[in-house]
Amino acid sequence: MTALLELKGVSRHFEGLAALSDVDMTVPEGKIVGLIGPNGAGKTTLLNCVSGLDHPSDGGIYFRGKAIHRMPPYRITALGIARTYQNIRLFGEMTVLENILVAQHLSGRATVFDSLLLLPRHRREVRSFHERGMTLLERFRLAGSAELVASGLPYGDQRRLEMARALATGPQLLLLDEPTAGMNPVETRLFGEQVLRAREDGLTVLIVEHDMALIGQVCDEVYVLNFGQVIAHGTPDEIKNNPDVIEAYLGEDED
Amino acid sequence: MELIWDVLRGIGISESVFQFMLVNAILGLSIYVTLYTGMFSLANAGFMAIGAYVGVICTQTLGWPLWAGLIAGMVAAGVIALPLGIPVLRLKDIYLAIATIGFGEIVRIVILNFDQIATDITGDRVRLTRGALGIKGIPKVTETWHLVLFLVLAGYFLVRLHRSRFGRAMAAIRQDENVAATMGINPVYHKTAVFVLSAMLAGAAGAFSGHLTRIILPTDFGFDRVVDILAFAVLGGTSTWVGPIVGALILTALPEMMRFLKQYNQIFNGLILLTVIIYLPGGVVDPAGWRKLWRRLRGKKPPAPAPALPGGEPS
What we know:
The complex is a heterodimer.
Chain A: E1 3-14, E2 17-28, E3 32-36, H1 43-51, E4 58-63, E5 66-67, H2 73-79, E6 81-83, H3 96-103, H4 112-116, H5 120-139, H6 155-168, E7 173-177, H7 185-200, E8 204-208, H8 212-218, E9 221-226, E10 229-234, H9 236-240, H10 243-251
Parallel strand pairs in A: 3-8, 3-9, 6-7, 7-8
Antiparallel strand pairs in A: 1-2, 1-4, 4-5, 9-10
Helix pairs in contact in A: 3-6, 5-6
Chain B: H1 2-10, H2 15-36, H3 44-60, H4 66-88, H5 93-122, H6 144-162, H7 165-175, H8 177-182, H9 187-213, H10 223-236, H11 242-257, H12 265-279, H13 287-297
Helix pairs in contact in B: 2-6, 2-9, 2-10, 2-11, 3-4, 3-5, 3-9, 4-9, 7-9, 10-11
């Protein structure tokens, strides 16, 4: 099993506060890897570093062996990494479908001049973007809302649209940042099935999650982060019974 | 056609006033494209000055026809916008505004002193921008139909642009630049390209206006002009590209139509602007804003926003 994503000694310091320190992590191709940890453990910082919105202070991040830790986000997306956001960040003024169209930006070939003169290349692209967009929306049960403004959607729909939008960029690795936060158990379960389906379609997934039921449902392996350090790594069952993990979550009063 | 002019003259709008309305509409488009991409840039007056001076020097000193001067003015503004944009567009919001106002002042001062500096360097007497005296005796060669044609072409360009991949990227960058970047959009490339486009539009407005006013002075393109252009966008709104055009038309026509107010004219202009900002914060070309205002006037409260708490209702 080859490593699709590899973190080697990744640290991220904010003015002396170590959000991540010396994190080693391997995400094998075709697997769903969970990343859990108490609030403030550095999970989102890690995703930000992988997606290029932040850069490690030290260490390296490799995608298919290629160093990506100094790349801007749009180049990382072009390599095949897509993400969702914990605090839903849809393009709120756009419609649901437009959100998906924007995400297909990289697969577009038509230039401004093609669009200006309505050349065949532009027309073909409009059609194919639209078809692919609607297929994705149907898969996430959002096709009926395609023309609605994204910010007006119910919460659970917005969460699903985030994942649909990430998939529209055509990724090989999908980063999900607490995708089921605020969903009820039924919605969470259905969402889990979508994540499993993404794996069947050949994607690799790195998922940050608090919901242990979902972790158990979908993850092949789990990393546990606490105070910016990896404190455990194993299958979901191993993790649930690991005393260090239990202590990290329950042992000390964090709040 | 004659009838239209008669009507316009009847409300105080002569053909030359109408031409300035159209020039200002181009300036409205110039600030619109940057605002639409989320850039609070106020460099338009500076680029207008470049377009005006380059355009006029091309037609007067070099003897080129107007269309060649127009293209030269646009290209000059665009060429200067490119190296300026790359560092300056790293700034956001009010910081970008301040930096671009600074650019406008630099342009004005360079034009003011250009001949002196060039003379000092080359040793020959240079007479191009003619310092504080400005360039005088420019023939009035800009015709109304030139401006109308330019605006129609620019409008078509913007409509098509909005429906292109590039246009969607512009909107995405405005709404959330970081997320746009993780969708594979290169924000620096798109912002710089839009900045150049905005500069070229302002340059065109400058070249046209230079051939309307018979004289151009460095002081024509100072901070007052920056505020005027921003007011077009505020009054018209930026929810569509029509907004700043309408804003420019109204704000240019109003002082002419309200001549009888004499010295109170400027106060009236300010009142109109304030009224719009308070009652139609999205500008006069914003259907949602008018609907809200209509409900308010009829004494109905706007519908309470639906609670959007996480985990509120299962969908």
